[in-house]
Amino acid sequence: MTGEDGFRVYTDGASRGNPGRAACAYIIVQGDRVLCERSIYLGVTTNNVAEYRAVIAALTTAQEYTDGPVTLYSDSELVVRQLTGVYRVNKEHLKDLHAEVLRCTAHFSSVVFEAVRRTDPWIRRADELCNLELDRGQSG
Fold first, then answer.
1. Residue 36 in contact with residue 61, Cβ under 8 Å?
2. How buried is 12 (Cβ within 10 angstroms: 0-12 exposed, 13-18 middle, 19+ buried)?
3. What domains lie within the chain, and their CATH numbers?
4. Which residues, if any, are the signal sequence (predicted)?
């Protein structure tokens, strides 16, 4: 299915401690319809890894809905700036995650990465999903 309205994807990662217990979440939206929202417990990792894991999980799931254009929104300026080439990826542990995101983008006709504030309602919902996942204390 190709997204003529375009697909919007909202992601968030969270860790309690850095590193600490972490989770990620994403929401896939087409028009004003939520197609999917999920959270994943990640174990102990850093906040930046959780943010990258959210992007990877979201793009992987979005492939089930479209091969068309996708706009991905994150409140992680670091991740967005690394993915758009504004910042270089200097941390070794983030280089593989960065490459994995770029591999995921090949499925779509285009992917635009945009940084948004934490106050964005969709990002707040993704943050809520992360915190619910961490509160459940799931291990996978």
1. yes
2. buried
3. 7-136 (3.30.420.10)
4. none
pTM: 0.94
Dist. CA 101–CA 37, nearest whole Å = 19
Tokens 């319809």 sit at which residue? 33
User: How many CA atoms lie within 13 Å of 66's alpha carbon, on the beta-carbon side?
Assistant: 25
How far is residue 119 from each of residues 28, 124, 126, measured CA to CA in Å?
Answer: 18, 6, 11
